[in-house]
Each structure stands twice: as structure tokens, then as C-alpha cells.
Amino acid sequence: MNVEVFLTGSHVTEEDVEGRTVVVIDVLRASSTIITALANGARAVIPVADMDQAGKIAMNLDPSTYLLGGERDGDRIDGYHLGNSPLEYTPDVVEGKTIILNTTNGTRTIWNARNAEHLIVGGFLNANRVVQFVREAGLDVTIICAGRNNRVALDDALCAGLLLHRLWEGREPEYVSDAAHIALTQYLHDRDRLADALRHSNHARWLIEKGYGADVEYCLQLDALPVLPYYRENRLVLYRERQPSESVG
Amino acid sequence: MNVEVFLTGSHVTEEDVEGRTVVVIDVLRASSTIITALANGARAVIPVADMDQAGKIAMNLDPSTYLLGGERDGDRIDGYHLGNSPLEYTPDVVEGKTIILNTTNGTRTIWNARNAEHLIVGGFLNANRVVQFVREAGLDVTIICAGRNNRVALDDALCAGLLLHRLWEGREPEYVSDAAHIALTQYLHDRDRLADALRHSNHARWLIEKGYGADVEYCLQLDALPVLPYYRENRLVLYRERQPSESVG
């Protein structure tokens, strides 16, 4: 299994994802929001690349069936029902709803990777579930850290390192891509104080300053929600095993 | 002094470099070739972003005064005088010449960063000289790793980590950018076996396979050429202290 890692997601090409299992990571907060919304009963999450796309999709849906969620500069977009805080996506709010999600880095990265053979969303919340899927799929895998405004984000890199550590069962192969090696090195450096390292990341500190500290703590919970957002026909749905149309490999 | 690091150079914007000291790192091999050419007596190196630009600049120069250098896919470009191997840039070849240099990642990154207040080129060969300049300039600094085809390159990241370690005299500040933290972590992880780690990088392995192993060994020599390529009026020249027009700060 060939493993590729991108430490920022903005310039992934179709060639980078074609025929592969692709894991998009945006720990703070799009991944965690998507995982939470689906775990809490949302019918689907439609990740979009920009405002225009969000508006067009909303226009074609019955207003009683969807919620618009997303952020710019970390805060809820004016006129949207929800921001990008996973804590807003409670069962009473999202059950049965389709969420149109519009975030600065995460949903744009998912959109860029939409032509993958399998496209899933990962974070600390569902790390083990992601590793299980990647193993069972058996395809080459590309882990894409969304990063932040074209820059590396420590939180995403640490999550990628954690996935690699588990995928490789602690034994780094002899030849890996430089980005994979760097993500794993960072994870091994911080694994004994992972939550502290994550709180210290640029994005976490920024969110904490903006009053979203509870979100940060929520997103750092390892394996708390063992569900898998899986992309199909322009939307993320809960992946369920043994459904023929969803079979892996 | 604010320190920013980019682990890939392809998407640096004018805003990222304006008013700052910018260090572009492309260890394998553009940085090392530029350092070597200037140390060996080349009059200047003109870094270009593509073939067109190289051709246009060459057309306006007296053919006896310049050499075209550069690579695609690691090898000398057809019709060029020189490739991108620093070992080709010997005194008898380059003395007094202007080199038009056209490489896949390095010279393009320099071109993207051309509006910096001070733009210098760094590698292992001149690491201490770079740190000395950055300190004396006293401005905020942006270290840009050229990387490789939009991807992180371990060799460049390790060189960035080394520069940070020396700049900070071994004490990482409390708040640094995630990319700086990651580069430093990787350097500290590998510092006791730096040459081996570098030989194991994706780019080094690729060059060794292509027969450029001697280049790799050459580029890894720490502080072997304490000279500073400095960008002025579209070209890199040797930085010389105490010349009023070149004064720092």
C-alpha cells in the first residue's frame, strides 16, 4: 500500500487522488463538525468550495430539509443557520437534515479531492475507524491535511501522524514520502503530550482566543465517535458496511 | 523578530514577503548551485521562473557574457550550457559570467519572492552566513522551502530547522508558527545523523538513482562556503558588507 501525505490541501490535483483512498483531515473544525453532524443523525453533509456553490445547492432544496452551516474567519456566516462549531450540531438540530457546509479550508479541500476512489473524512474523533477503513479498502492511500490558508497546520499534521502510526503499527517503512515521515516524526515527538501539543497549535490558540475553546477540547477527543463520513454523489453520508453499493474493493 | 516558515514555495504571495528578510532554500540543488557559482566567481545568477523568461533574458545579453543553466526532470535542459549540478559550476567555467538559471522548484520560488525587502539564498553550504545576515538585518524573517512539485521536501525542511535552531540559539520561543515548529522538530530529531537523514530524503534518493549522488554529498556539506547570494535588480550577486548600496537595515 503506497501512502502519500499532503501537509496542505489547497493544491491537490485530480491525479493525486485518482484510484486511491483519500482521507481529508481538518481537525479544527470541519472534520470534527462533519463527523459529529452525521453521528448525530444528519442525513448528509454537502461540502462546498465557496458561497456561490452553497447558495446554488440551497436553492434547489426544500427549505425544510436543509441547514446552511459554515464559517468565515472562524465565525458563522451571516444568514447561515449554523457556524462551524461541532457543538452546535446536536441531534435535535441536525436529525434528518441535510447540512450544506461551507468552511475556509476543510470543505474546499474535500471538494478538490472529490474524484478519489474512496473519499472519507478523518479527525481525532474517528481515527481508529478511519484506519480500519483504509486497511480494508486495501488501495493506495492519500492523507490530505487541509491546513490553514495554504499553510501547514500542526493539528492536522499530528492527526496524519497518528493515522500513519496506527496504519503502520508503529513500524515506519524503509521508504516513505517526506511528508509522511515529517508527520510521523511530529506525532512521535508529541504523542505523550498530544492534547497539550494540539492546544498549542496556531489554529487552536486562535480559536481559544476567539472564544471557541470548548470546540478545541471537543475536537481532541481520540476515537470518541467511531463513525465514517463517506463521500458519494456530492455529499458525505455515514459509511455503513456490507451494503453492496457501498462495498469496499 | 517574527519568523514564518513555508514548507513549500509554490504559493507564497507578495504579502508574505513584503518588508521582510526572505531566505529561499532549495538544498537539492538550486540553492547549492547558486552559492557555488557565486563563490566560484560568477558575476551574477539570474533566477527565472520558466523557459520563456530564460530565453528572453538571454536574447538581450551578449552571448560571450552569459551561460544558460538549468534542469527539467533533474537533467540539463536541451541546448543549455550547464545543468543544475553545482559540481559543473567550477571557477574556470563560471568566472566573470552571468548565469541564467532555470530550475523546476528553486528559481521559480526565488522569482515568487522577489519583492522581499532582502532576498537571500540559503542551503547547508552557507547556513551560518545566512543566520548571521538574518540577525544583522533585524527584520521579520520568512524562510521559504522550495519543496518539490508542490510537496514538502525533507532536505529543505531540515535546512530550515537548522537555521531556526541556530537563529534561536537552541531555545524555541513559546509561540512560533506551526511550520517553524515542525521544521525544528524534524531537525532536532535528525541532527545527530543529519547526513544520513538527508541521503534518505525522497529528492536525494531520486538524484542518487539518476547518477547525481556526488551532487547530494556536495550539497550536504555544512558551512563549507560562507557566502551569501543576495537578490538585487533581478539577479543574485554576492552580498558584500559595508557597501552603502547594499547596507542592511
Automatic annotation (TrEMBL), chains A, B:
Its EC number is 3.1.3.71. GO terms for molecular function: 2-phosphosulfolactate phosphatase activity; magnesium ion binding; sulfopyruvate decarboxylase activity. Its cofactor is Mg(2+). Keywords: Hydrolase, Magnesium. The keyword Transmembrane helix does not apply. Belongs to the ComB family. It catalyses: (2R)-O-phospho-3-sulfolactate + H2O = (2R)-3-sulfolactate + phosphate. InterPro entries: ComB-like, ComB-like_sf. SUPFAM superfamilies: ComB-like (SSF142823). PANTHER family: 2-PHOSPHOSULFOLACTATE PHOSPHATASE-RELATED (PTHR37311). This is Probable 2-phosphosulfolactate phosphatase. It comes from the Bacteria. HAMAP family: ComB (MF_00490). Transmembrane segments: none annotated.
